[in-house]
User: What shape does this take?
Amino acid sequence: MHIRYLLALSLLPNLVLAQEATEKSAAQLQCAINPPVSSSVNDREKLPNISEEDIVIFSDRSEAAMGDKAHFSGNVSFSQGSRHISADEAILDQKNEQLDAKGNLLFSDELFTVTADSLNAQMQTSSATLDGAKYWLHGQQIHGDAQQLKITEQNNLELRETNFTTCPPGDTSWLLEAKEIRIDSSEEWGEIWEAKLRIGDVPVMYIPYMTVPISDKRKSGLLFPSFSTSTTNGVEASVPYYWNIAPEYDLTFTPTYMSSRGFYTKTEFRYLAGENQDGQLNFEYLGNDDKLDNSPDRYLYHWRHQGAINENWRVQANFTDVSDNNYFNDLNSDVNRSTDNQLSRIGEISYFERDWDFNMRVQDIKVLGEDEVPYQVMPQLNFNYQTNDFWNQLDFKFNSELTNFQHKENEYSTATRFHMEPSISWPIQGPAGSLTSEVKLLQTQYWQEDNESDLDLDDTVSRTIPQVRIQGLINFERQMEMFSTSYKQTLEPQFQYLYVGYEDQSNIGIYDTAQLQEDYFGLFRDRRFSGLDRIADANQMTLGVTTRLFDEANVEQLKFSIGQIIFFDDSKINNIGDFEAAPSASVLATEIDANIYQDWFISGAVQFDTERGENKKSEVTLDFRPNNDKLLQFSYRYVPDLLNTNTNDRVNISQIGMRTSWPLSDDLYFVGNFYYDLNESRNIETYTGFQYESCCWALRLSYHYRIKTNYDDDLNPSLDAREEFESGVYLNFIIKGLGGSGPLGVEDMLNEGLFNYRKPLYLRN
Assistant: This one.
């Protein structure tokens, strides 16, 4: 028998009582821990025009006396706003403003859900006490038991003789037992007293006091430690500490003990400067490195800042310095990798408008392991203007630069360079292709001070060079069938004619200029050198063609490009500092990206000297990628005549490699890298890693063996005293819900080592 009963209680305004039966259900997902759902959530929706202050009560049976007690039984559900209670039986004491409930009791609000043996709630203070409770925090995997659970007036939780975990029910991978836990709903952090950590039901750690997050909010505290051992650093242990200073600032301090070197500290300070600017400061220090003979102090400091002052102004700053050339090779820095040998120091401010922009920058580059020090840019001013269709479909551009070059060593020349580059272009665009004609004037003025060098440079140099470029592309398209499959094929021939006038530039120093790569994309540049100190004369034609295959879903399955430059006249400026005649043609550059069969992909590039019959550079990768979680890659690369920075000798690089990432089960992954030098007949890198990640914890164990990039330096000048190879074992362990979120994933394991993983092509994600 269903009875609806309505009472008007003076102490509890707008109280609506009713009864109705409802069913409960809870879905279970693999890693989602879903609490039971209160029936009163749906019950409340059945009554129209109910405010947040109204109390709605449903039950099968009820007995009530005005101003005294009301007794409800059978599928009882209470709700007021976001709070909901369901039970078998409940008594409402109107005089004392108290609610008692028991039997299949469930309490829920916006933050948590609780089941319990009994509930005692004080209506006036909106507080409640539940005995024999089980609780779930919404939006988190955290759940647990408590002998007693209190909900305070501020909607906080206080639990006694309690425990919690993030593992699914029945999984005892880890459990934290505590005498008392207090959870602040506004701060979204929990305080724990007298905690005991169990792993696999075995107690492993006692913690008198700790705090844990129950959301993504930041809070000060210790982070999870990491452990490793290697031939260069010995046993290594780190225990990071995170300090949440303010909403705009935080700091991470990581003390590390290395048995072979000593005590190493890393400090990272991050900040926000308004809504659109941010920055970072790093300081790393190792006092008295025991691994080196004279036990030197080693350090790093780094500053990065970037952002927008307003809609027009942008700023950027980046500065890094280290104590010695081998700092990144020996120590695990948070700023650079061991393969980075250039430290860029830049300060820049820019102003942008619709048609023009202005930029001012200073720059200094420190090259580790190199005797020659690059020039400093102190400062450089750039002004660029562009307007389209300014007259009869002609576009106009004007680029200018004023740069002052300084050098730290007195024997080098210094200079000021002023460059202007106006250009007029006529672009013709259409679905069948494009044709762009461009005329440009390169005007440069140098003021040079030849200090103590032997270059015999002129004090002032004025250089004026005309340039004409005509670039065209045609798009052909057809339907074709291959291996019983329909494809759309494109054929995209393109050409570029380039004329650049000649002027003798031997009286100009080299300040910021280097030779550019001759890949397929580089064939269509209008410059052979970066910078402006050398502008190579040219009278040449570049011919190239690209073909693509698209399947019926319009997904690109193949892209192949081939091209070459034909020189009509020998260039008088071939290499920097070398004025010998250039060959009659450039390298023949080819590139291919293809899905050759089902999940097999190939990517390659070759630069071939057709005149000398020599391979100038080649690389190829073959990938098997059945899905995003599985990868098997084979690679080969060949680079001749490469400078060895350790010995200053020219060497040929010929290397093969294999890389794999493969799930052994739903939770266990294997990642392996192997690279072998064919010329030296030796292994140059091996990486093996296993990662297990479940819903509530993660473990990564890896082994690394690699060649070290050692440079001459003042700390330990003898390269013979340094290890040529480094090997190590690394262990990362994270318990989710205790301040960690697990390793970054399998992708970052692929990037471990000297050779970063790159997808061979963008045909498929």
The mean pLDDT is 83. The first strand starts at residue 15 and ends at 17.
